[in-house]
Design brief:
- There is one protein chain.
- By secondary structure, the protein is α/β, with parallel strands linked by helices.
- It folds into 2 domains: about 220 residues, Rossmann fold, CATH 3.40.50; about 100 residues, Rossmann fold (3-Layer(aba) Sandwich), CATH 3.40.50.
- Helices cover about 35% and strands about 15% of the residues.
- The protein contains 14 helices and 17 strands.
- The chain has a 6-stranded mixed beta sheet, with helices on both faces. The protein has a 5-stranded parallel beta sheet with strand order 11-7-8-10-17, with helices on both faces. A two-stranded antiparallel sheet has the order 1-2.
- α2 crosses α3.
- The radius of gyration is 20 Å and the shape is globular.
- The chain starts with 6 loop residues before the first strand and ends with a helix.
- The chain binds pyridoxal-5'-phosphate and zinc ion.
- The site of pyridoxal-5'-phosphate (PLP) has 17 residues, from α6 and α12.
């Protein structure tokens, strides 16, 4: 089926083109991020719903009904405050007054929409498993509620409250674990040993990266050219990789400039493994050096979604490569700086932010004040999440109740039996 779509998958290590059976790694076992090589080299904006207007560069054949899409606008308030002449905000959340309708309030919905379509197009059977610190789980639960396609979601116990949908949902198996995000990932991997349970793939999944990459597309199309800088707060770095990959496609398109936007990425202190490794010029993350606080540091930060202990940093086509090719910068932000930046943004732009977006805004404030970014340079500020308070005014936020909790209700084998039993409903 690999040639029936509008793309071929390609391995960046050996150059092979694996067929797409929801394939997220090279059949030769190469350690690299497989990407979609699209037949369309020039981007045509389609008259399809939500992000499917960028269908040319999404690894799917069809489209589904959705209102999820980034919205880019030129900033006045924050731009004046910082003296920046060309600051653009890519808003990913709920803000109807700006035309932004991501109901679960983060750009994870941009990943969930094409991913769930891709699995239904590429696999006859199989139920997606997603591990999440909260936002990803909520986004996939929402798309599950909207489409009826079942998903299995594992999250840290303290994130259980952030899994809600705006539509009644009975197609999610939610399991919580007493631990951090990385523990939820390990639990999820365990569940993928059940036949028919398919790991969503994280950064390895090209549908996820290109879904996130629509932020770069929307920014570029709105501005009329690629920005000089792309600002984002990162946990896995997938959004940074996605922006770089789309930048390369935009250069090949020919109409949007010849220079890749420089990545300016941030993490939340004290958990900043990629900041530390990048500042040292290292491709490898050394846990003792780069994550001294380990799990405790991860559980302490303000923006919990930014705490992945195994990010796709070293792998070919991963964040180290993206930073290297774009002459990128990474910086660590204190929690109090992020909180203050979120307050400033809300006051000047008029919408509330996800804590991670506060980290990103803080990094921009510091970069503008220190002169690292010039006053007239074109900046795309990825507000990766926001509008929760605005959403609460309009929408119901219906909690998804956990089906199991670990440890507690039993051991992992019992949990697997419970999952198998639940899966029978969808066989
Ligand atoms: C997941 C998430 C991030 C980090 O994204 P990555 O590119 O995967 O590191 C930033 N902000 C918000 C709101 C998120 O949900
Ligand atoms: Zn390969």
């Amino acid at each position: 089926m690999s040639d029936t779509g509008d793309y071929k998958l390609r391995c960046p290590v050996c150059g092979r083109n694996p067929e797409d059976h929801y394939t997220n790694s090279c059949i030769e076992g190469c350690s690299g991020l497989i990407y979609a090589d699209y037949y369309a080299k020039k981007l045509t904006i389609r008259d399809f719903p939500g992000i499917f207007k960028y269908h040319d560069w999404l690894p799917v054949s069809g489209w589904t009904e959705t209102s999820a899409c980034p919205v880019t606008y030129k900033s006045d308030g924050l731009a004046d405050h910082l003296g920046l002449a060309n600051l653009y905000v890519a808003f990913n959340g709920y803000w109807p007054e700006k035309g932004a309708f991501i109901r679960t309030c983060s750009f994870k919905e941009l990943e969930a929409v094409p991913t769930m379509l891709r699995i239904s197009e590429r696999l006859e059977n199989g139920i997606l498993q997603i591990s999440s610190a909260g936002n990803t789980g909520r986004a996939f639960a929402q798309i599950s509620a909207e489409t009826g396609v079942p998903v299995i979601i594992s999250v840290p116990e303290k994130s259980a409250g952030s899994i809600w949908t705006t539509k009644e949902c009975d197609s999610v198996f939610l399991v919580t674990i007493d631990g951090d995000y990385s523990d939820a990932i390990s639990l999820g991997n365990e569940l993928c040993s059940i036949e028919g349970v398919i790991s969503e793939g994280g950064a390895k999944n090209p549908a996820r990266r290109d879904g996130m990459g629509t932020v770069m597309l929307d920014g570029t199309v709105t501005i009329g050219r690629m920005p000089d800088w792309y600002f984002q707060a990162v946990g896995s770095g997938t959004g940074g990789i996605a922006a770089w990959e789309m930048g390369k496609r935009l250069i090949a398109d020919g109409r949007f400039g010849k220079r890749l936007p420089r990545l300016f990425l941030s993490q939340n202190k004290p958990f900043t493994p990629m900041v530390n490794a990048w500042k040292d010029g290292r491709r490898e993350i050394v846990p003792e050096k780069d994550m001294p606080g380990g799990k405790e540091a991860a559980m302490e930060v303000y923006a919990g979604v930014l705490t992945n202990r195994n990010p796709p940093y070293s792998v070919t086509g991963g964040l180290f490569d993206a930073l290297s090719e774009t002459n990128g910068i990474m910086t660590g932000i204190e929690s109090n700086e992020a909180i203050e930046a979120g307050r400033i943004f809300t006051e000047l732009e008029g919408i509330d932010l996800d804590p991670a977006a506060g980290v990103c805004v803080a990094s921009l404030i510091k970069a503008a004040e220190s002169g690292v970014v010039k006053k007239d340079e074109t900046i795309l500020l990825n507000i990766t999440g926001g509008g929760y308070r605005r959403a609460a005014e309009d929408l119901e936020m219906i909690p998804v109740r956990p089906s199991a909790a670990l440890p507690g209700s039993g051991d992992i084998e019992m949990l697997k039996e419970q999952v198998k039993e639940w899966m029978k409903k969808y066989a």
